[in-house]
Amino acid sequence: MPEQTRTTSTDAVVIGGGPAGLFAALTLVRAGRRVALLEAGGDMRESLCSRLVARMDGRTVRDAEKFRLQCPRCTCLTGLGGAAFHFDTNLGYISSLTRSKIESAPDGTVRSYSGLERALGSFDRAQDLIGEAYRIFYELGLPPAGPPREDNGPLLGEGTVFQHVDTAYSQSVTVDDSLVVVARLKDELDSGGGSVLLHHRATDVEPLTGGGFEVRADTPHGPAVFRADDVIVGVGKLGLPWVRDLARRIGVRHRPSSRVDLGVRLEADRADLAPLLDGCHNPKLSFLNEEGHSVRTFCVCEGGRVMQYGFLDAVALDGQHCLNQPTTKSNLGILTTVDLPEHIDGTEHAGEFAARVAAHGGGRPVVSTVDELAGRPAPEGPLTTSLINYHHGDLRDCLPASIVRDVLAMVGRLNTLHPGLVPGTATVAAPVVERLFPDLDLSDDLESSVPGLYFVGDSSSKIIGITYGAATGMAAARSVLHRRVTTAAAAGGRH
């Protein structure tokens, strides 16, 4: 190491300032531990889209929109708070945890499950941690949720149109409220013995002989080294290549991902999709396709936009909630959970899926109408989509036939549920890829095969989402505290 490299000793290093990393750090600091939280981006406001900053500074919507129109691809995915908090978003279940996903069981039946339950080893434990996450959010200034809408569960066709329906009440959060929550959380960390270090990009994690770690980072003041007993990795989707490389290099036990989510964003006029969303703003509707793979709705954005970002040398799409300034559109993901043969690496498979679409679109996402996807004539004139920079092409030329079939099957079921819900002029945009981290061998506390090294949130390969991420961060931090108490007690006994 160069002589000018700064070295800092601390109890724990948390890599990534998203919900998982923030809640891990908060749990440790509240227990009296010294923590260095390394965030590659800046403070939350610093990292926000200039359109949002313009609005918050009192400029008109029209003026603010000019900034957004200069952003064909979103770059506001790093910074304190994580990607999700940089947009109006959905926190997830508020009253109770549910088993919202389905799969084909070995006996041929359909079973539901919760990804968080599987990650943490117990449904009750997962639900308790979600409840604790909400208590902390409210403590930090998140306004309590309003009353739920009238339940429309019976209207969503469970058992007739869909094999599984989840209309559990969930809470939305605006960027304005997120700024308050994240700022208060940061203040508590800084004043309680933690260090929130912005623009500190972790470059390496090295296990030390005899225990502990060295974490190397690039900082505004040059390279730095942090020595700690424990390391909690909580990077988001953009950190995937780094996590893959780290796991291979230091021998974290893992397997190629055998299950990935691939699909599209469906967008229609808000008025068209209103019958689906009048009773629940984020319904989760699922069925099994002919291969036994789950096809489901995902991340419903009523009055939102479709956004794109650069990913794995290609492009990927997501839904953006627009709670403060809703649009005339609504969109939702349609995902197929693909189980892959042992010889196929799921991460590579998802990357190739995204790259194939991007190549067809000249580096841009590809958009078709539902009519075009079904082989019917293309409309005249431009498409009505909220995407700013896209290629209007035939998705049948770049999507696997199975994905096209699943999307059309979902559209057909939605139209059976509510006739005319998805008109032929609605748009379908690709690619969407989720859950593609390597399958890390983690304990129920998210500890890897390298003792003291934890992976939480997206990087755990087990879950995504704000409250799910927060729950995994707390679980890992509590494990760190327990291990250190046990180690100290053992050392005292030897004396």
From TrEMBL:
SUPFAM superfamilies hit by this protein: FAD/NAD(P)-binding domain
Transmembrane stretches, start-end: none
Record keywords, A-Z: Flavoprotein, Oxidoreductase
Molecular functions (GO terms): oxidoreductase activity
Cited Pfam families: FAD_binding_2
UniProt superkingdom: Bacteria
UniProt keyword Protease present: no
Domain FAD-dependent oxidoreductase 2 FAD-binding span(s) in chain numbering: 11-45
Cell cycle found in the keyword field: no
PANTHER family per UniProt: DEHYDROGENASE-RELATED
Annotated protein name in UniProt: FAD-dependent oxidoreductase
Organism placement in taxonomy: Bacteria, Bacillati, Actinomycetota, Actinomycetes, Kitasatosporales
Gene name tied to this protein: mhr8
